Amino acid sequence: MKDQKRLNRKPNRVFKSKLIHCDYKDCDFKTQSDARLATHMKRHDNPKTEAYRQLRLDLNRRCYDSTTNTYSCGQSGCLKTFTNYNAVRDHMTYIHKSRDIVCDYADCNKVFKTKHLLRLHFNNMHKTDKPFKCPHNECGKEFAYRQRLDTHLVSHTTGRPFVCDFDGCAKSYKNRLSLTTHKRIHLSEPTIKCTVEGCYERFHAHKHMHKHRQTVHSIRPYKWRPPPGYKPTCLWPGCDFTSKTNYQLNVHQRTHTGEKPYACDWPECGHRFARRSHIKDHMNAHKNVKPYACHWPGCQHRCSHRSNVNIHYKQVHQK
């Protein structure tokens, strides 16, 4: 049996004593095996792999420093350096490349830098078949990728294990991404660049950048639009409620079931709410924050709940 296996064994590759060089232009590949050279030559016949090779040659020509064995960004005004090719390639693609790939979904027209980002956007925003569903019955959210579901499940927990270590801050968050986003406000220089071509403004938070895009560049934020004829209906007996989104339907159904999934994590509070916006206003009362102001001329009244502004307006200014 062993002799039969030895006979059926594939012959070993023959390695030559001298190196064989690829004769393709600007290619420095070399090997001792004819089989490896034949496999390598197939890459030159593939347009996709050839485009990657040309990109690598271009970045090596412009960015590589042989004395320090590092890569430096070739864009004017950018002084970043990198230790490997993959890092400088990602930097040039996601930071300096222009947005020229447009989403062709109706009324979207959002632009991206790579086809990969366009595919993620389409699956998350426009795809109706999302296989990963939140196991919490009162939630009902669906996702195209399991990673997005795992990130969402953190919102149903009450613990906040990620604490900011900046002196005097001590804010805590449910996930590491929120903590990383928060830490940007402690930096001396803003790091988030405006995504509009030709604008070099930088910000500490993405929400400030999006606000800048709306006020300065008049770019309206994308608003999800349901497909034509999409009207989810309430399945409660005797209720004919219809809505435009699944979220509105889930919030409405809580009026039938009495479910209140959003719990206040303030010590010894225990209040629960059916809407996320309600618990945000409730937390303002705990923190003594009053973000809602009366816009009546000369009125300085402020309150922590959005609904209290309307009550104040009717009781004081509409008499």
From TrEMBL:
Superkingdom of origin organism: Eukaryota
Domain C2H2-type: from-to ranges: 71-101, 101-131, 132-161, 162-191, 232-261, 262-291
Keyword Zinc-finger: yes
MF terms (GO), sorted A to Z: DNA-binding transcription factor activity, RNA polymerase II-specific; RNA polymerase II cis-regulatory region sequence-specific DNA binding; zinc ion binding
InterPro entries: GLI_C2H2-zinc-finger (IPR050329), Znf_C2H2_sf (IPR036236), Znf_C2H2_type (IPR013087)
Keyword Zinc: yes
PANTHER family named among the record's database cross-references: PAIR-RULE PROTEIN ODD-PAIRED, ZINC FINGER PROTEIN ZIC AND GLI
Listed name of the protein: C2H2-type domain-containing protein
Organism per entry: Medioppia subpectinata
